[in-house]
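Weekly structure sync, notes
Attendees: PL (lead), two postdocs, one rotation student
Agenda item 3: pending single-chain targets
PL asked that the sequence for the first pending target be pasted directly into the notes so everyone works from the same version. It is reproduced below exactly as submitted, 189 residues in total.
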Amino acid sequence: MKLPIIAYGDPVLKRKGVDIDADYPDLQGLIANMFESMYAARGVGLAAPQVGLSIRLFVVDASPYAEDEPALETFRKVFINPEILEESGTKWLFNEGCLSIPEIHEDVSRYPDIRVRYFDENWEAHEENFSGLAARIIQHEYDHIEGKLFTDKLSPLRKAMLKSKLDAITKGQVGVDYKMKFPSPRRKR
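Predicted structure, written out during the meeting:
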C-alpha cells in the first residue's frame, strides 16, 4: 500500500524517533509499504517520520546510483534502531533532494565513510561500514529519525533564499505525482 509522504512543515519531521522492538505492530507490512511508497515516488530512501511515524526505522535502495558505483546494484536495506557510531574522511558536497521537500535540491556536505549499528528486518544485529553514496543516503535518512532535514544543514542565507519555496510546500502548492500529506492549516485565534 502506498503511504502518503509527509510534507515539509509537519511537526512529525522535526521529532526525534524512538526505538522499537520486534513486537512493533505489523512491522513487516510497514516495511513493505515504505518500500512501495519510496519506489512510487522514485526515491532512494524513506524514513518512518516521512510517513508520519516517530520511530527509528528507514529503508534504502541505492540501485539507481549503480552506474556511478556498481556495488550499489543490489544495495537494498532496512535499518531498525540504527546508531551511527563513527563518521570519518573529508566531507564532500553532493546535491541532495528529499521526498518531503519536493522540487528543492541543494548541495549538502557529509562524511564519505560511516560505521553503523542496526537491526535488519529479521531482527539480526549488524555493525557495518559504508562509504560513498551509500553512506550519504544512510546519513540523510538517519537525519530524519533524528528530527533533522537536509535544509537544516544549509547556511542561514541559503535557507532564507528558499523560504518562499518551503512555504509553498507547507501550503501544498507543489506539483508531485505521488501521494503527499500536507500540514493542516493553523487556525487563527
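Discussion points:
- The mean pLDDT is 96.
- The chain has one domain: 5-175.
Action: rotation student to compare against the earlier draft before next sync.
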